[in-house]
Structure formats: structure tokens, C-alpha cells
Design brief:
- Its main location: membrane.
- It is a multi-pass membrane protein.
- It comes from Quercus lobata (Valley oak).
- It is found in: Membrane.
- By secondary structure, the protein is mainly α.
- It has a domain of 250 residues: MFS general substrate transporter like domains (Growth Hormone, Chain: A, Up-down Bundle).
- Helix 6 packs antiparallel against helix 9.
- The longest helix is centred in the middle third of the chain and has 33 residues.
- 42% of the residues are buried.
Amino acid sequence: MAGAGATYIYGIYSKQIQKTLGYDEDAMNKITLYRDVGANVAIFAGLIAEVVPTWVVTLIGAAMNFGGYFMIWRAVTGKIAKPKVWHMCAYIAIGTNSQNFANTAALVTCVKNFPESRGVVLGLMKGLVGLSGAILTQIFLGMYEDDLNSLILLIGWLPAAVSVVFVFTLRTMKTERQPNELKVFLLFFYSTIVLAFYLMIMTLLEKYVTMGNAVHSKSAIVVTVLLFLPLYIVFKEERTLWKNKKERENPSPEMTVEKSEDSEPKQLAEEPKGSCFANIFNKPERGEDHGILQAILSVDMLFIFVISLCGYGTSLTAIDQFGRIGKAQGYSDRLVGSIITLVSIWNYYGRVYSGFVSELLLMKYKLPRSTMMTVVLFISGIGMLFVAFPEIPFAFYVASVLIGFSFGAQVPLNLAMISEFFGLKYYSTLFNCAQLISPLGSFLLNAKLTKSLYLKEATKDLIAKGVDTSSVKDPTCIGHHCFRLSFSILAMVAFFGAFAALLLSKRTKEFYKGDIYRKYRVKEDEAYKRYKGETYTMFREDSKAN
């Protein structure tokens, strides 16, 4: 997951593509559009994951990642003739779409392995994706310094190599839940917090201090060490589990009890997979496994779509416009660049904290995740108002924190709700379906609303100055009024999303009051009983032999 976010540094290597290949703005806009299409149309990865093993999904993603970015690298280094625009669009779409295969393979597998800690798992996983841009940047600077051509090559081979190395490690496992599971995840959480803090410090220092190759090389080593730090936790836990297993396989005679009916080996009934489109209008109860169309056509999914449209749409718009917002308010390019960098860090904190906090609130108070989503979208709306009314002291800084944090917090909450409402049978497809809302929200609220209103305000300024608007291709707006109307509307959209989340919370309140993870514990209990029965049988046979 730490290598599955190359789209976050597209702004760095896209300039190199334009510079070396001489594409005009229209061509670059088309390439950017296909980048967004590739990054967000993840339904193909989901559907493929329904019919092939996880390792195949992982290898497909690795091949697409290397193939797409390798062709871009060959183009910018002159190893092939200058590609036509549609060729470059295809390369970038293939490269960015590959990350959906990595996301699907890792997320779905880990949620199925840890169903009772899915909020925590999703927060950690998506948090690392949020950090991946900064991670790849540090490794790039350590290996290649400022050679942007090599950056394209790096994001082609490194994520692919990681996928190949761990291709068989990533698998669904049928095991009983460990009593200290949450504690172990907290240790993972602390290690990623250290990594995020280090990346934040290094990224800010690079904005204000000139660093040499030696410093960058050492920084890349530190990042790599911090990335692999959780392996120490894994080795420690595996050693403990191995010792416990040895003790259970060699029970002492005084610990042996008569075999009861419950310890008889039991065979779990195989659940027929069936057609993923069967019984569309004969929906199971909330929390049970739904078919794909059963879930998509449900009222619960409609609420999630509305919440995602309002939440993702407004947040993506704000993040995309932060550069113009800073310029309109008269901040320096260096300061604006630092703020944009910090937004990605707040995004990470939002992802991991919402995952952990929502899981704890669910366990302790049976609080629906949509209740927390209500709070998150309300915070996002407040952040939009700080942009709309920049006269408030420190408005730009506060807005960056609130919007970045709330945007990150939405991701694990949405993904967890989908898994809880509709089951895990077709989770790989369903969570990728919900992701399709992101580009739609961004298109409506960013391209059609915010950019249009900004252009209108900039044109008004030119007319007021007596400038012929037809002679200015890309007018710039300076002042507090530039984003007042657009971000006031975005705030209202975010508040509407919060209201929709509140309605969903009321609708699912009784569902969350129950034991939503009971069916997973039943399966674990059955597996444990089978294990106990087998252990008892082995012990009796050994006793008779002796």
C-alpha cells in the first residue's frame, strides 16, 4: 500500500512529460483526465478479484504498473518516438489503474482476515496509501537526486517489485482471532505515526533548506527502515503464537478432559457462491452477504453514494484549488507549497484516526460509523467556510487542517460501512463501485462549479481594471472574494452530506446495537472446536500407543 499512490506525485512528473515531449495544455489536460479515469475506475479490478486468486490480482497490477510507467519513461528519455497524445493517455491510464489492483488485493484480503477489526485495518491501509507519495519522493531523492526521468522509472519498477516479492504473502487465512489483536494493530499504528512525522519534517525542511545528495540518501534509508519496522512486531507475535501452538500440540495429561459433544470435529457448510447478480430484488438482511446488484440497488448504498458525492466531491475540489486559494490570498509560493504538503499529512492522520476511533466507539458504545461520518462532514463544511471567509485570522491554515483531516477520515468510514452492510462475499467489487463517485463529485463541484465561478470573478476583476478579457487566456483572481460564493456552496453541500449521514445513522441504529461481528466469531468457534477435537483424538491415540 505504501507504493500504491503514485498518482499523488503526478504533479511532479507531469511537468517532465510536458517539458520533454512538448505537449500543449490541451494535450496535458487530456492526459490528466485519463490519469483520473485510470485512478478511479476500479470496478475492473474488483470484478477480476471475484473470479481469480489474490496472487493473480497482485501480479496483474504489477504488470500494468511496470508496463504503463515503463513506456512513459521510454518516451521521455527518447528511447521511442514521441507518442501520440492518445498513446500517452493509454500509458498513464494503465499505470494509474494498476494501483487499484494493489488496493483491492491488500484491502479485501486484510478485511477478510481481520473482520472484527476492519475499521482499524482500513485506516492503516488507506493511511499508508496517503503517505505513499511522500515515501516515493524520499526514496527517489535518495537514489536519483533531481533526475525526474528516473522518478518515472522508479514508480514503474519499485511498486511492481514490491508486489512480486510479497505476492504469496498476501492471502486469505482462516485462523481464530487473537485476544491481543487490537493491541498489535496499535503498535502498527504507532510505527506509522513515527513514519508520518518524519516525512512531514523532511518535506518541510526541503522547502526551506538546500540538502545534498548524502542527506537525501540517508533520509531514504531512514524511510525504508521505518517502513519495515512493523516486521519486528510481526516476528515477536509469530514467536509467541508458535510457542502457544507447541504447548497445545503437546498437552499434559492433567489438562486432558473427556471429549464432549462440542469438541467433535465439525465441517463448516460450504456457502454456495452462485451468481453475483442473482435475486436482485430479494435482498437479504442488512449485514448478510448481498449480491452485487442487490447492494448497488439498495437504499443503504444510495445513502453511501450521496454521502460520498458530497464528502469526496467537496474535499477533492478544495484540495485541487489550494494553490489558487493561497495565491488569491497573497501567500508566497513556498508557503502555499508547504501547506499543500501538510494537507497530505493531515489526510493520513484522518484516515488512521477515523479507523481506530470508529472501531473503539463501535465496540464500546455501539455507535454507528455513519454517526462519526456526520461529525467528519460537519468539520469539512466548517473548513470550507474558512476558505469562503478568509478574513478570519489564520483561516487558510485552519482550513488546510480541517479539510485534509476530514477528507482522510471519510475513506475508512465509507469502506467499513460497505463491508458491514453488504457482507464480504463481493466486497472487492462493491467498494470499488463506491469509488466511482469520487470523479463524478470532483467533476460536478470542481470543473463545473468552482472553476466556473472563479473564472467569473477573475473576469469581473479584469473588466473593473478596463482590460480586454478576450486578450487574457487564463485570468487570475486576487482577493478575498475569489472563492467566497463557490466555497459557501461547497460548505452547504458538505453540511447536506452530514445530514444524509445522520439519517443513515438513524436508519442503521438498531443494526449496530446488535452483534454485527457475531457470524465471524461463530466461524472461528467452529474452527477452534474442530482443532480441539483433532488434538484430543491425537492425544488418545498417543496414549493407547504408549
